[in-house]
From TrEMBL:
Assigned protein family: Belongs to the leucine-binding protein family.
Organism of derivation: Aquabacter spiritensis
PANTHER family hit by this protein: BLR7848 PROTEIN, LEUCINE-SPECIFIC-BINDING PROTEIN
UniProt entry tagged with the keyword Signal: yes
Domain of life: Bacteria
Endpoints of the signal sequence: 1-26
CDD domains named in the record: PBP1_ABC_RPA1789-like (cd06333)
The name this protein goes by in its record: Amino acid/amide ABC transporter substrate-binding protein (HAAT family)
Any one biological process term the GO annotation gives: amino acid transport
Keywords from the named record: Amino-acid transport, Signal, Transport
UniProt xrefs under InterPro entries: BCAA_transport (IPR051010), Leu-bd (IPR028081), Leu_Ile_Val-bd (IPR000709), Peripla_BP_I (IPR028082)
Length: 385
């Protein structure tokens, strides 16, 4: 009789503990904020980011969440509007009380939000490309995509190896396009390459033929570089083919997705660009450190969405992974402790690269994390010559 009663009390204690744990789990989430451009002109960047963040948070909660608590993703769509992005950033801090933020699809929206998170001392991991996001370095701001400067260096390494010394440039006038153009001009001299023609186009331009004709008619040019992202580079690529320009065309990592290939169509054949290993994960050797994580993310994303994986979703994946791992290491949701743990990220093998951050480096990637790709038959070919 005594044994039976003891067993009943033990079962009740277990049930009560489970109930209390469940109640606490449901009532006290770890709130992570995000503002992305899921619609608008940068939707092909922001949509896979949003889907990736939702997918990962769902998977994380299935495994028990963080610190014994569920994770709540508070997600807003800025439509590519910097003013909306700043408004949402303020809302995340003042109303939603997030402990950290992963988002900022474009350089423009990111730069608009940075002062908000810096003032509030809330960690912000950006998914945008420009180097200005992390240089000069800010205490609470980090990023996952390679910088535009690193992309320039990778492209110029490739050009130099091919004996290219004179080029034309046609850049977007958006935040990313301006920044990458400036970064390329800063480092190009180190590779013995000269810019003979320097054109640009606006975000809403639908025909870049006049600018490309100027480049075509400039004597001595051996290749053309297009620093840009969004739909502009696809238009440049189509116009390039229509004009019959036979010179090599280099694009930025800002177009490293199937969306660009589809928009540009057959004109994309032969285009070269630097990109993360994720785009060619199936072609990586078995001993490549990024193969396992890249393959797993690709399979999960494509199964969940029915869409091909993109590097932009990969930026979101690395961002949320770096953040949640930092929270787990910090064993705290205190923003300062989270910030410190993010900064201490070391040898994190992601789908974009292998990250090691520090008090002087809030990105932690070099040119070795880029793969030089070429488009052949509508697909990516690694290190094509």
């Amino acid at each position: 009789m005594g044994t039976t009663v003891s067993r009943r009390w033990a079962l009740r204690a277990v049930a009560l503990a489970a109930f209390m744990t469940s109640a606490a789990f449901a009532a006290d989430p770890v709130k992570i904020g995000s503002v992305v451009s899921a619609t608008g002109p940068a939707a092909f960047l922001g949509d896979p980011e949003a889907k990736t963040l939702k997918l990962y948070v769902e998977e994380l909660n299935k495994k028990g969440g963080l610190l014994g608590r569920p994770v709540e993703l508070v997600l807003y769509d800025d439509g590519g509007d910097a003013n909306k992005a700043r408004t949402f950033a303020t809302r995340l801090i003042e109303d939603d009380k997030v402990v950290a933020m992963v988002g900022g699809t474009t350089t423009g929206t990111t730069m608009a939000m940075i002062p908000v998170f810096e003032d509030a001392k809330i960690p912000f991991i950006s998914l945008a490309g420009a180097i200005e996001i992390v240089e000069p370095m800010r205490a609470f701001v980090f990023k996952t995509p390679h910088t535009d400067k690193t992309a320039c260096q990778k492209i110029f390494e490739d050009m130099k190896a091919k004996g290219i010394t004179k080029i034309g440039m046609i850049s977007g006038t958006d935040g990313f396009g301006k920044s990458m153009r400036n970064q390329c001009l800063k480092v190009i001299g180190e590779y013995g390459i000269t810019v003979l023609a320097d054109e640009n186009y606006g975000a809403t331009d639908s025909d870049m033929t006049p600018q490309l004709n100027k480049i075509k008619n400039t004597a001595g040019i051996q290749a053309v570089l297009n620093p840009g992202f969004g739909q502009g580079p696809a238009i440049v690529t189509r116009n390039y083919a229509q004009l019959g320009i036979a010179l090599p065309l280099y694009e930025s990592h800002g177009v490293a997705s199937k969306s660009y290939v589809e928009l540009a169509g057959p004109a994309a054949e032969g285009v070269r660009l630097p990109a993360p290993a994720l785009l060619v994960v199936d072609k990586l050797p078995a001993d490549d450190r990024q193969k396992a994580i890249g393959s797993a993310y690709k399979a999960a994303y494509e199964k969940a969405t029915g869409q091909p994986v993109s590097t932009f979703g990969g930026y979101g994946f690395d961002g949320i992974q770096i953040l949640t791992q930092a929270i787990a290491r910090a064993k705290s949701t205190d923003p300062q402790k989270i910030r410190d743990a993010i900064e201490a990220t070391k040898d994190y093998v992601g789908v974009t690269g292998i990250y090691t951050m520090s008090p002087t480096d809030h990105l932690g990637l070099g040119t070795d994390s880029f793969r030089m790709l070429q488009i052949k038959g509508g697909d990516w070919v690694m290190e094509a010559k």
